[in-house]
Amino acid sequence: MSQSIIIRRPGVRVSNLIRSVGLTRDDAAILAAAAVLAVSVYFLAFPGVDIAVSRLFYRPEAGFFLADNPLLKALRKSSSLVLALMLLGVIGRLAWRALRRRPLGAAARRAVFVLAALAVGPGLVVNLVLKGLWGRARPVQIDQFGGDAAFTPVWMVSDACQSNCSFVSGEGSSAAWMVGVLLVVTPAKWRPVVLPLGVVYAFALSMNRLAFGGHFLSDILLSWALTALVMTGVYRVTVASPGLVRRARRRFRGLQPLPA
Fold it and tell me: CA neighbours within 13 Å on the CB side: how many for 172?
């Protein structure tokens, strides 16, 4: 049964924004799942919102006129570098502790969380399953914005796009992953500074795709919610409940090969 964890040093111990309002890890997962459901229901009920929002960035004579903006293009390119630096930072910190012969338990679990969350969230769920199978055309590809494909609402499988499709946003998912990683691995004293900057960067990176005509608003919002849901599950297994991993390892080692 889940119990709320009380922060005894508010303002320094920001180890959990969730805990600071009296929520448990289970509550975080429920909120993420509720966000997935709420966003899905809203955009299924009002699919025209996606087109209306994208139309704000479209001009008939110029298309998606911000797509060639050099600052926005640089912002998009920066995401790969930032993601790589975050991975190197987590792995480097683990290696540094190993070289100094310090205990690796918590640091190792955080590193596993970072890698597993990236592989399962943006990697498997978003890019491999959803973007690979749902076939939703991007805004720039649909007939309302000068293309020749038909618009399809969220969660409706389509053949309007053959590969690397719009549903959901890969960069939005990576941006949500960045925020989750900062929340987990940033030392407590730096979180009040680092976390807001990370949120602003992730928001700008995600909305950039909307301005480029690369994604609908629903693609971005669902990518955030789905990634958050995946990360709560990965966090529970790798960081919050390390005993699960130890028990699984012991059971695996206890398996005996079948006689020939």
Answer: 27
Q: Say whether pTM exceeds 0.90.
A: no
Place of tokens 């390892």: 249
Token couple for 72: 């926005």
DSSP per-residue letters across 131-186? HHHS-PPPGGGBGGGT-SBPP--TT---SS--SS-SSS-HHHHHHHHHHHHHHHHS
pLDDT in tens, 77-103: 999 999 999 999 999 988 888 888 877
For residues 118, 122, 128 and 129, what is the CA-based torsion angle, rounded to 10 degrees?
Answer: 120
In this structure, are residues 161 and 137 in contact, taking their beta carbons and an 8 Å threshold? yes
Residues contacting residue 167 through CB under 8 Å, at least 6 positions apart? 130, 131, 134, 135, 136, 154, 155, 219, 222
Domain spans in the chain, listed from the N-terminal domain onward: 19-240
Alpha-carbon span 149 to 158, nearest angstrom: 10
